[in-house]
Design a protein that fits this description.
2 domains; globular; 56% strand; 12 strands; 272 residues; 12-stranded antiparallel barrel; Lipocalin
Length: 272
């Protein structure tokens, strides 16, 4: 008798859980099937954070930037320039493929010795999927994953193939203000343990063409806090310029950067 009652309770709880799960999934369905295409370009520049949206089917986008970074300590000074290019292509309304290539040059001053190195410092290939679109309490949610390859120049070679995963969220707080977060983990290929990181981005649209942002970001393994800020200018609906600057220093090290970029998209949907 006790066994029979126990089985009835299990069946009842199972049905209740399945009913609630189905209700939740059906509640998310309208957000999942919404299209991702934007009337104006949406780009991961400027700043560290990426958004949860994808480009939409038959859209290609190029995001290029130039960054100057200087790191000063008591014993040394390093100046780096990085030319970064990201190529994105929308294969469906919810999925896109992407790749990244960085070209870097470093100048290191150590006492009276100066060293120069340069070459391809980063290569990545992967994709992004959009899961939901912001509506009410439901945020925009996207998941991006990339493989970090070993195809770099000698000074920047990875010991092993790595990987990087980012969970991106976004919420509109008002017509002009939005909050975005990134929570990620990286296997660099050079370290035995993965590195967990966070990014919190607050963006404000000054006008239809000008936007600004501030960010806090850092390492979750040892919890560090860095910040950057900047602005973007929409030249037209398919072309954007941006500039930003950031500080990543500690008490014994000065580490700052400036960054300039351009993003444009090619929209084949126009002919469909």
């Amino acid at each position: 008798m006790q066994r029979y009652m126990f089985d009835l309770i299990l069946v009842k709880n199972y049905r209740t859980i399945m009913k609630k799960t189905s209700t939740i999934m059906l509640g998310f369905l309208p957000f999942i099937v919404l299209g991702q295409y934007g009337e104006t370009i949406r780009t991961g520049r400027p700043g560290q954070a990426i958004g949860g949206f994808v480009l939409g089917k038959s859209v290609m986008q190029i995001q290029s930037g130039y960054q100057f970074n200087q790191i000063d300590s008591e014993a040394s000074k390093m100046r780096s320039t990085i030319y970064s290019t990201v190529l994105r292509f929308g294969v469906s309304e919810r999925i896109e493929f992407s790749g990244l290539v960085d070209w870097q040059t470093d100048k290191l001053d150590l006492d009276t010795l100066t060293t120069y190195v340069g070459g391809i410092s980063n290569t990545q290939i992967g994709g992004r999927i959009n899961l939901t679109e912001n509506k009410g309490w439901v945020p925009t949610i996207g998941l991006q994953g990339r493989v970090l390859f070993k195809s770099q120049s000698e000074p920047y070679l990875r010991e092993n193939i790595g990987g990087k995963f980012i969970l991106a969220t976004g919420n509109s707080l008002s017509d002009k203000l939005s909050l975005g977060t990134n929570w990620g983990i990286t296997w660099t290929g050079n370290q035995p343990k993965p590195v967990a990181f966070y990014i919190i981005n607050l963006s404000y649209n000054i006008s239809q063409k000008v936007g600004t942002f501030v960010e806090l970001y850092g390492n979750l393994n040892e919890f560090t806090t860095n910040f950057d800020a900047g602005f973007s200018y929409l030249v037209n609906k398919d072309f954007q310029l941006d500039a930003s600057a950031g500080w990543q220093g500690r008490n014994d090290v000065s580490n700052w950067f400036i960054d300039f970029g351009v993003s444009w998209r090619v929209d084949w949907r126009k002919g469909e």
